[in-house]
Amino acid sequence: MGRVAELAGVSVRTLHHYDQIGLVRPSARTAAGYRAYSAGDVERLREVLAYRRLGFGLREVGELVDDPSTDAVAHLRRLRALLLERRDRADAMAAAIDRELAVRAKGLRVTPEKQLEVLGARLYDTIGDAYTATRRTDPRIAAQIRDALGDARTVLNVGAGTGSYEPADRDVTAVEPSAVMRAQRRAGAAPCVAAAAECLPFEDRSFDVAMAVSTVHHWGDPMAGLREMRRVARHVVVLTFDTDEPGWQDRFWLTRDYLPEFAAVLADFPSLAAMADAVGARVEAVPVPWDCADGLFEAYWRRPAAYLEDHVRRAMSVWTKVGAEAERRAVRSLGDDLGSGRWAERNSDLAGLDAADLGLRLLVA
């Protein structure tokens, strides 16, 4: 027990307590009769300590590690998803602090409301509000997704967020790991399960189709999530992004001319070919309309002034990922080019287009 305590970075007293309450009981004995931990005991202890360090209470931890439907791999995937969500919250808090520092550096007053945005819960609520304000269903993109769903009656929406693109005429079950996003779902929306894509709590082939819209890039392990979708559904429909084409970041003037850091955001993202192979999908291009109602990152390709608006950018996770310094530089440069006419001159070929192929792709399996 002493050696395990040393390796785990906890006290022997803690291990004794876990033994007494039945959370982690050593199942082996040494030749001298001392309690000893088997490999399985150590694995369980690892899970207990990981959940504890994420802030779970002992009762919650006990329920998690005793769940008979969850094995060690599922626990690791769940822990990874929780850590990534916490990282995103920390990134968002850092971005809020950067914005407040910039305001204070100018000698301007920071309102109490803005000060409270630095707090994690309040900040995440603010980001969620931005999603509901600008991330609406675009009917043209929705029509393409609806066609891909075919005649499916039962639909699993993975990484459902606030519920955009959920078909109203089907039996939908949503999956969303973020409590804040779940709270933003409209009254009467499909029932929503708290779970991560990498560990879906459903039996094999429970649904006609599993769909995922503009969410795969947020998953801790996209390939594992896609395989899970394929496991629980007969068909799969995924709206994602193509990074296979050489020079893909130059398709969109914003990443080409103002935000080269975007390439690093997707540096570890799986290739489109690999994602398609994972679910056995065909690939369809999804054009972005010039007046796209959904405020996704590429939505304003013919309305560049929108990217100067803070509330528009707040509904796009890219800006948090690239950091406040890159965001300030990009916004400042774009504003200068719009004011001088350089942007219009450089992108004159866009003026007559009704839609643009900016890399959005639909995987249909």
Architecture overview:
The termini are far apart. The chain is α/β, with parallel strands linked by helices. The protein contains 17 helices and 11 strands. The strands form 3 sheets. The chain has a 7-stranded mixed beta sheet, with helices on both faces. Strands 1-2 form a two-stranded antiparallel sheet. The longest helix has 34 residues, at 72-105. It is globular, with a radius of gyration of 24 Å. The chain is 47% helix and 12% strand. Helix 3 packs across helix 4.
Entry summary:
The chain is an alpha/beta fold and 365 residues long. The chain contains 17 helices and eleven strands.
Protein traits:
two-stranded antiparallel ribbon, alpha/beta, 47% helix, 17 helices, 365 residues
**Helix percent band:** 40-55%
Give the DSSP E fraction (strand runs of 2 or more residues): 5-15%
Query: Over all CA atoms, what is the radius of gyration?
Result: 24 Å
Mean pLDDT over the full residue set: 86
How many DSSP helices? 17
- The spatial strand order of the largest sheet comes to 5-4-3-6-7-11-8
Helix/strand order: HHEEHHHHHHEEHEEHEHHHEEHHHHEE
| Contiguous uncertain segments of 5+ residues | 120-126
Q: Termini separation (Å)?
A: 51 Å
Structural class: alpha/beta
Shape: globular
Total E-strand runs: 11
Main sheet attributes: strand count, strand direction, barrel closure: 7 strands, mixed
